[in-house]
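Is this the right way to post structure tokens for a design question? Let me know if I should format differently. Anyway, here goes:
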């Protein structure tokens, strides 16, 4: 017998487990698993098999995170509505963070119970911390929203939040990956709880949600997440570029510095989330709205609209023009959003997210890009009718063709490379009017 086989831990295990543990685990009883999740504190739960078509685009990432995944357990925890509705950011933020901590703790306890029963399981973070080594790419392990929809826990509203049929959008989501099948799986509900009342449109301070369903990711990200990720990076650059304390105070006032301190010492502050606050959807929520719509708007929506606050926008963006037009009493502050693609793939992926459609008005242009060097590839970007398409390879007849060295282009995007110098050195070459490249840049300020 080898030294390994004779080890006390190995011998004890084999004495207690004479049966081959490679035998497949029987499917878990869905009722038992549901009861376990609810007992641990979840307010609702649903199950999705890994092969489900609705999460096909997430499957590879899920299996990388936990290769033996057979089932995804999606669960929700309710937030206290009046806290989220409060114009006082301290009240709303404590509610978001406290409920988020509960989601992580409940997920952990469910996993611990399953592990005690010999079932392997993993609970990715509800929100933060994330995989920041991937920033600004996909920094999350599991996309909780599509999993929740597939599990029958609601549908996405026009504000891009999941609306639970009973609890409305006053929920936070958790997902658990387990190495076992379940006797019964859930399916998406057959209607969308979203009322399309457009109150989220009316409450949003940056115009991120449009009445036609368009969502301006950049506007929401720049303001609401000012003290997260890219906004924090932009603040650090303000510090680095300041000559002295007086110069810094001209860029960042005392209130903003204190808010950053609060985010660093406690948890990051959401600047708005007014879309969640204003939403009246859900069986438990809708009564106040239906009883007196005018009163609901006066009590819930109007205070958010009337609040005097600083709104963070990228210069030249649709959000900047919207705030100045719609909320002149709110103070506009021009900032960077800290999004600097570190790959061509990231650049192309981010174009639809950063696209400012009102800046593209009147454009109907096909751009061909050829990238050489470290990340050689071809792509087509079509901007027309205030929409954008990003396609692999060269498609159609281009109005302008840009050929660029990968590293040079990424430095140009990060404002570390002068494009005129790059053109002189032929590290960037343009076939067509430079005016069209300038028009392109205007769409992504």
């Amino acid at each position: 017998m080898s030294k390994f086989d004779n080890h006390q831990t190995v011998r004890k295990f084999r004495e207690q487990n004479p049966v081959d543990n490679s035998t497949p685990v029987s499917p878990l009883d869905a009722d038992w698993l549901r009861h376990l999740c609810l007992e641990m504190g979840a307010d609702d739960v649903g199950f999705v098999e890994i092969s489900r078509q609705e999460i096909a685009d997430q499957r590879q990432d899920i299996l990388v995170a936990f290769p033996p995944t057979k089932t995804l357990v999606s669960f929700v925890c309710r937030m206290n509505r009046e806290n989220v509705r409060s114009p006082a950011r301290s009240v709303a933020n404590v509610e978001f963070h406290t409920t988020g901590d509960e989601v992580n703790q409940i997920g952990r306890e469910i996993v611990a119970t399953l592990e005690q029963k010999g079932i392997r399981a993993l609970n990715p973070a509800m929100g933060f911390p994330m995989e920041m080594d991937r920033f600004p790419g996909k920094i999350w392990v599991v996309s909780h929203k599509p999993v929740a929809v597939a599990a029958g826990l609601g549908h996405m509203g026009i504000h891009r939040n999941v609306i639970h049929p009973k609890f409305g959008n006053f929920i936070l989501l958790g997902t658990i990956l387990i190495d076992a099948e379940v006797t019964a799986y859930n399916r998406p509900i057959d209607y969308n709880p979203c009322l399309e009342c457009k109150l989220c449109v009316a409450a949003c301070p940056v115009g991120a949600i449009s009445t036609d369903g368009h969502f301006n990711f950049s506007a929401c990200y720049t303001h609401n997440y000012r003290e997260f990720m890219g906004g924090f990076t932009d603040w650090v650059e303000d510090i680095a570029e300041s000559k002295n304390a007086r110069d810094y105070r001209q860029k960042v006032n005392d209130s903003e510095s204190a808010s950053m301190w609060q985010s660093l010492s406690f948890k990051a502050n959401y600047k708005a989330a007014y879309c969640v606050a204003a939403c009246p959807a859900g069986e438990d929520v809708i009564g106040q709205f239906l009883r007196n719509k005018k009163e609901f708007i006066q009590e819930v929506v109007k205070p958010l609209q009337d609040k005097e606050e600083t709104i963070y926008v990228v210069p030249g963006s649709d959000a900047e023009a919207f705030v100045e037009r719609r909320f002149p009493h709110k103070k506009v502050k021009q900032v960077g959003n800290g999004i600097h693609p570190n790959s061509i793939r990231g650049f192309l992926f981010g174009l639809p997210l950063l696209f400012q459609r009102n800046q593209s008005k009147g454009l109907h242009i096909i751009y061909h890009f050829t990238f050489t060097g470290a990340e050689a590839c071809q792509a087509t970007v079509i901007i027309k009718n205030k929409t954008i398409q990003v396609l692999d390879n060269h498609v159609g007849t281009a109005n302008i063709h840009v050929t660029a060295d990968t590293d040079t282009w990424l430095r140009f995007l990060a404002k570390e490379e002068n494009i005129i110098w790059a053109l002189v050195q032929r590290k960037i070459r343009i076939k067509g009017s430079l005016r069209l490249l300038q028009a392109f840049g205007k769409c992504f300020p």
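Format looks fine. Someone answered above. Worth noting: The chain has three domains: 8-178, 199-334, 344-442. The chain has a mean pLDDT of 94.
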